[in-house]
């Protein structure tokens, strides 16, 4: 088992990564909780819920299962889970366990953050993508008019990452998760970036390689988050690839592409803009080829309307007064921010489609 | 204008109290906000909304008016206000102004706390009761099954208290607000307690007296909150009178009694229990007479079922594993906590009704 510590504004918490951890969650958590609610989704429940439940020898353990998928990150499910907390008798000393991917983590985290003004929760991620969302304390639900519009900053008390649960992931989930690992490499570790895009990913990636990639990804993210938990400064860099990524995701309709697939296209676009505007030397072709080889949906952009995408980007939380703020790269490992007006962004997006994506 | 500073965990904020402040809110706020949303209710809007709106010479100012009353502190209004934030184009640099009493402050504060993971908000209280709720950063909405069950700790960036807005309060609101001032006196300032209960309150309390009482109340609350923002310890004392108070409020049905009226009865009960259990010398008769003289609904308890009230107390956020934690007084100005089981609490409640309330 590997360990990593993260300093949040109010407490220090640990990330444990290992094989089979789900069987010993009950003994790995620090603190004792008389009442525990495990929140998971309909895909994860039949696979791992019983294992996690069995791992607790003390305390009363209840469970709540939400439908799998991004549409569960909504006001309705949020309210239902709060009702479940009350009906199961959770009090201020209770624990929420978020067992699942980013949707479960974000939603269950927001429930824990706001139930009785905040109770403890732990993240038990079951996707590669959740190496990103499970650390850093961003929790949220979506509003019809925008992703993650409702939420807060509320860090877990622990993250327990069982690598075995990644073995059952469909390949598109591996693709989705690796987009964020590639992003983390671009931000602060060109070696990680190069290592990943030199590999052919398969469903049975070697355990040590996977743990290594996840640890490096989490280390990069946590170093940034420790500097700037509330996203007043450097944390914004973590949105590399997300300005266009979020816009693609919501414009295509949630569930049509995975988050990471959309971010991968956004990452290519950020590299393209970095080259055009900053003259940065960017491995665009190498990344494009690797994405194509692994089946990332590179043609998704074609079917989407540029001006609709730009309208979405302007509504992004990172945008201010209608101006789009994009994370660019001066070179691999050196992010920066740049503001864009509509027209310029529109031109860049059109040229990107012509020059890179076709 | 009087000023008082409060140290929250993440920032220092000021409370300004004065006459006519609503006309200069725009110039009194520190920081510049390109986009402002004033949230108020249907009773306050016709009286003061235009004044506050006019006070802003810069920035785009939008408004949202909720129906007056506790029933607005609900999930539905919360969601509607978040939609209003999006539709009015609020971004991370925008400001929410909570203009109203505790309902508006709690609800608008929770909206600000969770919109885009938290934007700035200021409290502009228009009731005496809100001298309590507008400081300390507790924001929340109610769940059908419990008051303030959903919320977080999120302090305003400023509190601007215009004494003139208290002039239009109906007398039951003055009664309601003064219950919390009396509570603050009991907790940490016997002089304030004695001063208040030696007076005959009227709708036209002298301005200096009112400012003095409010300032003392806020000073007591803020000193406690500065020590323990997240209610792990001493902040619990602020719940003096609230264990039974909340139970009465919800058992009678919100809106039947005001919050302060219910707390006043809870305060009497806390004094009674303090005398019975701790042998404390408590001015029960003096407080009872003063409450009766001012029309507090002392007979409300008669019509309520004791076991229902106790079931409500056990569901209170301060309760843990079904044991009720009550704040008692060793003497005026010296609070302490004590745990109670059902049966004992039931006996105490029945004796209280027989000995004190009839």
Automatic annotation (TrEMBL), chains A, B:
GO molecular function: 3-dehydroquinate synthase activity; metal ion binding; nucleotide binding
Enzyme class: lyase
Pathway: Metabolic intermediate biosynthesis; chorismate biosynthesis; chorismate from D-erythrose 4-phosphate and phosphoenolpyruvate: step 2/7
Positions annotated to bind NAD(+): 102-106, 126-127, 138, 147, 165-168
One GO BP annotation of this record: chorismate biosynthetic process
Cellular component GO terms held in the UniProt record: cytoplasm
Chief location category: cytoplasm
Family (UniProt): Belongs to the sugar phosphate cyclases superfamily. Dehydroquinate synthase family.
Protein name listed in UniProt: 3-dehydroquinate synthase
Organism, as annotated: Thalassobacillus cyri
Species classification: Bacteria, Bacillati, Bacillota, Bacilli, Bacillales
Gene: aroB
């Amino acid at each position: 088992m590997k360990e990593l510590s993260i300093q949040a504004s109010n407490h220090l918490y640990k990330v444990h990564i290992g094989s089979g951890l789900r069987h010993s969650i009950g003994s790995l958590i620090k603190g004792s909780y008389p009442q525990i609610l495990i929140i998971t989704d309909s895909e994860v429940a039949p696979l791992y819920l019983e294992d996690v439940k069995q791992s607790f020898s003390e305390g009363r353990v209840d469970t709540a299962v939400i439908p799998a998928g991004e549409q569960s990150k909504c006001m309705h499910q949020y309210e239902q889970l709060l009702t479940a907390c009350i009906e199961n008798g959770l009090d201020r000393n209770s624990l929420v366990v978020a067992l699942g991917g980013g949707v479960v983590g974000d939603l269950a985290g927001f429930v824990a953050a706001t139930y009785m003004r905040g109770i403890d929760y732990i993240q038990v991620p079951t996707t590669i993508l959740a190496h990103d969302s499970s650390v850093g304390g961003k929790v949220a639900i979506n509003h019809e008019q925008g992703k993650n519009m409702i939420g807060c900053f509320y860090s877990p008390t622990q993250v327990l990452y069982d690598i075995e649960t990644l073995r059952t992931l469909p390949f598109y989930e591996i693709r989705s998760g690796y987009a964020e690992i590639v992003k983390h490499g671009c931000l602060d570790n060109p070696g990680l970036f190069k290592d990943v895009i030199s590999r052919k990913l398969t469903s049975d990636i070697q355990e040590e390689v996977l743990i290594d990639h996840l640890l490096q990804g989490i280390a990069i993210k946590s170093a940034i988050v420790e500097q700037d938990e509330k996203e007043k400064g450097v944390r914004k860099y973590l949105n590399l690839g997300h300005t266009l990524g979020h816009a693609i995701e919501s414009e295509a309709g949630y569930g049509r592409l995975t988050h990471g697939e959309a971010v991968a296209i956004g990452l290519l676009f950020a590299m393209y803009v970095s080259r055009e505007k900053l003259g940065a030397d960017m491995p665009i072709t190498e990344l494009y080829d690797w994405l194509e080889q692994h089946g990332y949906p590179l043609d998704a952009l074609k079917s989407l309307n540029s001006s609709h995408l730009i309208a979405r980007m302007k509504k992004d939380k990172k945008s201010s007064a209608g101006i789009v703020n994009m994370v660019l790269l001066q070179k691999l490992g050196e992010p920066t921010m740049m503001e864009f007006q509509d027209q310029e962004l529109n031109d860049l997006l059109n040229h990107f489609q012509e020059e890179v994506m076709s």
